């Protein structure tokens, strides 16, 4: 099974969308809309301080009566962030996401954020791996 490093090397490594904890939620939402993403990392002094998702805004913002234009990201972000390294397998990521019910995993090594993998990235990776395996078996069976 593929590793996070292999997944990141396919156009994702170094792609990091981040905001600071003191930025307003509206700014984070605008960034997410601009890039068609569901999460931004919350970075403070170059380090991962949290993660902010559409789910965070829905549950800790809107439902609690907070307004995006007057609420700081730090008030609604998820501060306890699970991370993985490039060496983790896709299967390990799947298990972690399933166990803790989240859809995005920052990739961090030596306190440096390298990127983010999403459940969509993982599903695509598994589909591609299965497709490759099927093609191999078809060629093996047909003798070509």
Regarding quaternary structure, what we see is single chain
**What is the strand content?**
15-25%
Q: What is the succession of H and E elements?
A: HEHEEHHEEH
CATH architecture: Roll
Instruction: Report the end-to-end length measured between terminal Cα atoms.
Output: 25 Å
Number of strands: 5
Low-confidence stretches: none
Shape: elongated
| CATH homologous superfamily grouping | CBS-domain
Rg value: 18 Å
Helix/sheet category: alpha+beta
CATH classification, class level:
Alpha Beta
Task: Record keyword descriptors for this entry.
three-stranded mixed sheet; alpha+beta; two-stranded antiparallel ribbon; elongated; single chain; CBS-domain
Layout of helices and strands, plus pairs?
Layout: H1 4-9, E1 18-19, H2 25-35, E2 39-44, E3 47-53, H3 54-62, H4 90-100, E4 104-109, E5 112-118, H5 119-142
Parallel strand pairs: 1-2
Antiparallel strand pairs: 2-3, 4-5
Helix pairs in contact: 4-5
Task: Report a brief summary of the structure.
By secondary structure, the chain is an alpha+beta fold.
Would you write up a description of this structure?
This protein has one domain: Roll (CBS-domain), CATH 3.10.580. Helix content is 42%, strand content 19%. The chain has helices spanning 4-9, 25-35, 54-62, 90-100, 119-142; strands at residues 18-19, 39-44, 47-53, 104-109, 112-118. It starts with a helix and ends with a helix.
């Amino acid at each position: 099974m593929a590793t996070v490093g292999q997944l990141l090397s396919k156009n994702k490594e170094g792609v990091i969308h981040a905001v600071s904890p003191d930025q307003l939620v509206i700014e984070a939402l605008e960034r997410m809309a601009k890039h068609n993403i569901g999460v931004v990392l919350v970075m403070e002094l170059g380090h991962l301080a949290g993660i902010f998702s559409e789910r965070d805004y829905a549950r800790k913002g809107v439902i609690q009566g907070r307004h995006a234009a007057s609420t700081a990201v730090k008030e609604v972000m998820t501060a306890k962030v699970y991370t993985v390294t490039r060496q983790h397998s896709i299967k390990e990521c799947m298990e972690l996401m399933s166990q803790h019910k989240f859809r995005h995993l920052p990739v961090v090594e030596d306190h440096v954020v390298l990127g983010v993998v999403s459940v969509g990235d993982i599903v695509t990776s598994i589909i591609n791996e299965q497709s490759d395996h099927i093609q191999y078996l078809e060629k093996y069976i047909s003798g070509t």
